[in-house]
Fold:
Amino acid sequence: MVNQVVNSDFSNGSTGWTLTGNVGVNPSRENLQFSAGNSPVTGVASQTIAVVPDEDYDFSFEYGRLGAFGTSGIYEITYVDDMGATQLLSTGAFANGTGGGAADTPFPTQSIEIPDDVTEVTITFIDTTANTNSRDLVIDDVVLDGPTPPPICFGRDTLIETEAGLQPVWKLSQGIRVNRIDGQPVRLRGIFSRTVRTSAQQEDRRLCPVVILKGALGGGLPRSDLRLSRQHRVLVSSPICKRIFAVPEVLVPAIRLTALPGVYVEDSCDCIEYFHLLFDRHEIIHAAGVPSESLLLGPQALKALPKEAREEISNIFPEIAAPGFRPTPHSPLADTGPDVKELIARHLKNDKPIYYG
Structure:
């Protein structure tokens, strides 16, 4: 179990948080302070976090007040459903707490059950204090404890299409030019690897790779057996996709393709080495001929990388530390939900490849 909240103790200012209205980080106390200086009660603080569907998480935080009088607030944990509507997972009210400006009153730990089609939740704190006459609400040590979403990466022997021809991913190096989906070469900004031993896979089956056998996706793709991490997305582009999603293409995690013959989770896998490819932006490249995504930067994606890789990426792309930073995907993401199941089922029923015009 790992705390999935970025900058949970506000030691890095507001990094990872979206703040609106009268709320900010008190730098001397390193906590979140609402309505400082008798300003109007309008503060809202939120953070969107990647989660693992159908898993349980523990949520907690500490609160308090600055000033002699009582304060109050509410928290909400929400997600957006397939229809674009915001749904409430958990909410609670809290009031008063210890004084002196420290957030030392613990809110009782809440168990949060993530629905089986949800991959992101948003934690929101809202100031509801009656007035701001010498009373400021403070929040600190926000925790959403649970499993980290698996990394998005290629297996060691994946053949990547580069300007110089096909090369196994383990032979690539920073600066090499990789062909993106439109045929134009783009410079590789970083390559990072992670070895997952057999024991780790046995302890957490989500670390086992998805195997896509040669030709399993139709149209001769992939051109050789392909191993991807479960959440690594491939591009589905077809008239079927257009009818279901109203867009011609979406990115679907490899684990969602296991409904197709020849696509399965390799539960008895030996130690596997995963590789992450990073470009200036989220790209679609060819892996064994299959249009597949590069690393999509974001706070939760960074958590799945080794510390050295996180530090290097932060040096290359300092903007990821900006409050409220959200990466822009190449194509719409279709991670979960009944529409994804229907998309794959209809390709299977009609014997259509997942990538065709």
Remarks:
- The helical segments are 198-203, 239-245, 299-303, 307-316, 338-349.
